[in-house]
TrEMBL record:
Pathway(s) served: Carbohydrate degradation; pentose phosphate pathway; D-ribose 5-phosphate from D-ribulose 5-phosphate (non-oxidative stage): step 1/1
Function: Catalyzes the reversible conversion of ribose-5-phosphate to ribulose 5-phosphate.
Complex and partners: Homodimer.
Species, as recorded: Chitinophaga parva
GO terms, molecular function: ribose-5-phosphate isomerase activity
Entry similarity comment: Belongs to the ribose 5-phosphate isomerase family.
One Pfam assignment: Rib_5-P_isom_A
Keywords annotated in UniProt: Isomerase
Keyword Nucleotide-binding assigned: no
Active-site annotation: E106
Any single GO CC term annotated in Swiss-Prot or TrEMBL for this entry: cytosol
Binding locations of substrate: T29, G30, S31, T32, D84, G85, A86, D87, K97, G98, G99, G100, K124
Stated name of the protein: Ribose-5-phosphate isomerase A
Catalytic activity: aldehydo-D-ribose 5-phosphate = D-ribulose 5-phosphate
Amino acid sequence: MANADAAKKAAGVRAVDFIENGMKVGLGTGSTAYWSIMEIGARVKQGLQVSAIATSIQSEELAREQHIPLITFSQFDYLDVDIDGADEVDGQLQLIKGGGGALLREKIIASASRRFVVVADEHKFVPQLGAFPLPVEVTPFGWEYTFRQLTAMSGRPKLRQKDGKTFITDNGNYIADCSFGAIKNPRSLEALLNAIPGVVENGLFVDRAHTLVLGYADGTTKVMNKI
Ligand SMILES: O=C[C@H](O)[C@H](O)[C@H](O)COP(=O)(O)O
């Protein structure tokens, strides 16, 4: 296993220790959350009882393969724990997410969770957010106008492509990958972006994470809690 994968696996597996019997759980998206879903599946086979909701179609399919019982929003008021990855995380546990395009469902599920545990390899931990392009989910209707608004904010938006086509999110929207440079005030940028009518959501997760599990290439982990 490559070093980065070992670090992701270590974080993803360790985070599952926060799940107790009977809990309602949010399942994240991406190559780190993958390991959490696999570990939850393994523990379900050993008798752990959980019910879960996924942050993407991809993770939902993986959960089904792992025989993890799934629930819908009509079946719960809140989730006990959400375990999800990040593209960048700073010392205050503020995040950039959405590298896989799942940010909207991820933010709804993080918001519905009493405890949001972020899993990441050591390279995701940064002194300041902003080197990773900030994903912004926009409606296809009027996207060119919305992009002009993002450009006016110095966001330098790029329409995300995949396999030579425009990338479409699970919600039928586009992604603008933006470069704002170093993000000094994530809270205000998150709010300013969401004030643009064609913006559905953006990948800044401010004051949402409670716990960070960082994984290292040697298989060790470090747990940090929001102060
Ligand atoms: O949209 C994708 C999510 O926000 C992922 O959790 C994030 O991109 C991190 O993914 P990975 O663990 O694969 O680096």
